[in-house]
Design brief:
- Helix 3 crosses helix 18 and helix 11 crosses helix 13.
- An eight-stranded parallel barrel has the order 4-5-8-9-13-14-15-16, surrounded by eight helices. A three-stranded antiparallel beta sheet has the order 10-12-11, covered by helices on one side.
- A hairpin with a 5-residue loop joins strand 2 and strand 3.
- It has 20 helices and 17 strands.
- The protein is about 40% helix and about 15% strand.
- It is α/β, with parallel strands linked by helices and about 525 residues long.
- It folds into four domains: about 40 residues, no CATH class; about 375 residues, TIM Barrel (Alpha-Beta Barrel), CATH 3.20.20.70; about 45 residues, no CATH class; about 35 residues, no CATH class.
Length: about 525
């Protein structure tokens, strides 16, 4: 069985002429004279431009590799006996009574009304254009939203002095939109990579906006290199080159300028530098951020080799950081090299199982274990339950990147259609939103005259999270667990021997053996 699908994908807008050979992905018969709709054929014309999912700025992309173990290889255990965290009374132990709040932070003081937060909404066009819906959706849902890397550096209106940012209207806009609707649960994280640190982004957002949660970024599950975006004009490429980004091809070269003018190349690429992690350097940076005024310091790490996961957990333990997000391979991206996204890194389930083993080792030594969050291809309530249970009690939340953005984008799309309809009919937009969204009446009662001011994307995102909440409550009630701290690895069963081997979760036919013997004698 081949897990990969090389040389053709909807993500790269490519296909093969006939069925491909499973290993190479080449057509079984490659025909001289074919115009080359496959990745290799398109690369013969457009070269490096075909490395990335397309069309850039309008899509998010998730890996299509079929990994040998994922969350579907586990099922949730239910029971008809008792209740944990609730009286074993049929009138009290009902699923709406399940408490889905979670707490992050070394002191457990960072409350989320639901155990999810957004992926890093960074500098890509699709992130910028959907920020309002995602940020407001997070604020009214009581969860965390993350401003991703390179937002200041990519801001066309940003002003720099001695290489440091002194003004960034784009990041100002993002923070202010969130603050306008924020009510106390959840929060806003600002993330920094190498370029952000050099530009002084952390100092800027703390000094100007009082941001309390700062995140260091080692990487993500979608790629093994720094972040990248595509640039459609020579002027934009020159601006970012002047800001000391890596821009390919070099827009200052006359040959690049001529190729762009003639259409041989249609875009430039802006790349971020890769961080170089050292233990001493990590501790110094955490302490520096705390001295800047950060109340919480977090770390996002990617699907690197297991030794790097050990570094992330150990360093985070020693520094007593407030959240460690572990992002598995295959989840999603706004822009990453497509083959890299499919073919590098440790998949999410394997990475979480490794994290559990490492946390257990540190726990046996009496070490502090930071709250963990898992990311990488999660989307619905069963994923949330399984991710929380698989490495319980260490995982406190999950990161939903593409899924949350999808909800916000669909809400925005239908909201725009409803706004046009109401404009033509002379109707009230708030009424239209009530007809459109299942949560419309609920939100109108909550926000009153401000309801119509909510971005439609935010309502769509809130509706999605409302669905996740009820779905998770139902699954947890079925397992007779009435609050998140009661979830355990015993709430899962492995459906395959491989899933059992990598996780230590019992294979379905071996589950409950001791209790069965006790019951049957």
């Amino acid at each position: 069985m081949s897990f990969s699908k090389p040389n053709r994908s909807a993500a790269t807008i490519t296909s093969t002429r006939v069925d491909p050979a499973p290993i190479s992905g080449l057509c079984v018969t490659c025909l001289d004279g074919c115009e080359g709709p496959c990745e290799i054929g398109r690369s013969a014309l457009k070269g490096r431009e075909v490395i990335y999912p397309q069309p850039f700025g309008k899509i998010t992309a998730g890996a299509e590799k079929d990994y040998p173990a994922d969350f579907s290889h586990f099922n949730i255990q239910g029971t008809c006996v008792g209740a944990v965290g609730m009286a074993a009374d049929s009138d009290q132990a009902i699923f709406p009574a399940v408490d889905c709040t979670t707490y992050l932070g070394a002191d457990g003081s960072l409350k989320l009304d639901f155990p999810v937060f957004t992926g890093a909404v960074g500098s890509t066009d699709i992130a910028r254009l959907n920020w309002e819906g995602i940020a407001v959706g997070a604020a009214i849902s009581g969860i965390i939203v993350i401003i991703g890397e390179n937002v200041c550096g990519m801001d066309p209106q940003a002003e720099l002095k001695n290489g440091r940012v002194v003004k960034s209207p784009e990041i100002d806009r993002r923070i202010n939109i969130f603050k306008q609707w924020y009510k106390g649960s959840g929060g806003l994280i600002v993330q920094a990579n190498v370029e952000d640190t050099r530009l002084g982004v952390m100092e800027y957002v703390v000094d100007k906006h009082g941001v309390q949660i700062l995140e260091l970024k080692w990487g993500q599950g979608a790629k093994d290199i720094g972040g990248e975006v595509k640039l459609k004009t020579l002027e934009r490429a020159m601006q970012l080159k002047d800001r000391n980004y890596i821009v390919l091809p070099d827009p200052r070269e006359p040959t690049s300028q001529e190729a762009f003018k003639l259409g041989g190349i249609s875009e430039f690429e802006r790349h971020s530098r890769m961080g170089m992690v050292t233990e001493e350097g990590f501790y110094k940076e955490v302490e520096r951020l705390r001295k800047l005024g950060a109340k919480y310091v977090t770390l996002k790490t990617g699907a690197y080799r297991p030794a790097d996961l050990a570094r992330a957990i150990k360093f985070s333990s020693e520094a007593r950081i407030d959240l460690l997000t572990i992002d598995g391979a295959g989840g999603g991206t706004g822009m990453s090299p497509w083959r890299m996204m499919n073919e590098w890194g440790i998949p999410t389930v394997h990475l979480e199982c490794l994290a559990y083993q490492m946390c257990e080792r540190l726990k046996a030594k009496g070490k502090y274990i930071p709250p963990l969050a898992i990311a990488g291809g999660l989307s619905l309530e069963d994923h949330i339950f399984k991710a929380l249970a698989l490495a319980a009690p260490y995982v406190k939340a999950v990161c939903l990147g593409r899924a949350i953005m999808t909800a916000a984008m669909v809400g925005k799309t239908h909201g725009n259609l409803m706004a046009k309809k109401m404009e033509l009919e002379g109707g009230d937009l708030a009424e239209g939103y009530e007809r459109l969204f299942a949560v419309g009446a609920q939100l109108r009662e909550r926000f009153g005259s401000d309801f119509a001011k909510l971005p439609a994307g935010a309502i769509g995102m809130y509706s999605y999270i409302d669905r996740l909440r009820q779905g998770l409550q139902q699954l947890m009630a079925g397992a007779r667990k009435f609050a998140l701290p009661y979830l355990s690895r015993g709430d899962l069963v492995a459906l395959t021997r491989e899933a059992a081997d990598i996780s230590g979760i019992p294979y379905v036919m071996d589950s409950d053996r001791e209790e069965i013997d006790r019951i049957l004698g």
